[in-house]
Amino acid sequence: MISLCCVGLLLGCYSAFVDSQSQRDVTVECQTDSVVVRVGLTSGSALPVDPSGLLLGNCPPFSSDGNTAVFRSSLLDCRFMRMATASILVYSNELSYKPSPGFNSIPFNELIVCSYNMTPGWAPPVFNPALGDASGFGTLVFFMDVMNDDFSAPRVSTTFFLGTLIPIRAAVDQQFHMPLILFLEECVAATTAVLSPSSQTYSLINNYGCLVDGQVANSKFLTRVRSSEIQLVVQAFKFTEGEDVYIHCQLAAWDPQQLDPTKKACNFNKTTSSWELLDDPNQNSLCSCCSSICTQRKKRELGAGDQGLTHTTVLGPLKILAAAQASERGASVKKELSDRLEGSSTQDERSP
């Protein structure tokens, strides 16, 4: 059985596509930018459900009192999937159960869905401006830019050719906040500025900071200049249709003394076929989960007293051209320059 409670500034929230014969006692409460899922542990079976066998995405329960397991999660955590249309935003995840000896032996999976009508005056987390308040210590301002080759300034042109490297810089302005370290938890390349079911997508970074594109390309994180900034290069590619590429990323600013498998930046070393931690090679073990599923040691809600803040941003459009297009573009640029020089010369001749 699935029930749903909607609160906040939303016009519509719905659960969807659950087994009609399911008798699971699951309650979903969709809030403005988070979700609360409650799972009854004792109903419908002689043996109770083991709370340690429950996962929402890759997150364990936030709490359990023996009768009910409770998940509390931001819609940007626990591997919630996000899809959007012009008027509806949908976040979905899977609630799964793997039984343990002495407990209910029937595994199950339930789809958890929060669907939001985009009402005037409300914006979902992905569209928030690059401002946020963390721990009450001050405002954090996030930046993300495509840079020139030496990272000295933002790049003027966003046109790249297949196989070349795209320099990307992300940073957080700490202002009066405690010292923070910045990570890219997830980056997805897509054909659209807003992710939707019709978008073609390609994963660049996943699993909380694993640069998976480095397994098949020359993409990698670069040595840090400062902890509040992270630089990387992504080898340019294009989708089968169209030239425009948008890069959607989730950034996380965190306490540099509290690194764990979900707060890391990992490069893939193709020579050794192993994962390496960008910030401290002595802790490469934090990247070992990049080949499986990375989970944090203890799930906590963001709020007063926490050590971090996340922000989602989009870069683009980046225009990716093939070699033939590069040649055509070069000829076009030369002609334009020649025309400008000729026009300038003519103007000079007419000047007194």
Automatic annotation (TrEMBL):
Q: Which domain of life is it from?
A: Eukaryota
Which positions carry the signal peptide feature in this UniProt record? 1-20
Q: Which SMART domains match?
A: ZP
Q: Where is this region: Disordered?
A: 327-352
Read off the PROSITE patterns from this record.
Answer: ZP_2 (PS51034)
- Keyword Disulfide bond (UniProt): yes
**Which part of the chain is the ZP domain?**
29-273
User: What keywords are annotated for this sequence in UniProt?
Assistant: Disulfide bond, Signal
Residue spans of biased composition, Basic and acidic residues class: 331-352
Protein name per UniProt: Zona pellucida sperm-binding protein 3-like
User: Which species does the entry assign this protein to?
Assistant: Lepisosteus oculatus (Spotted gar)
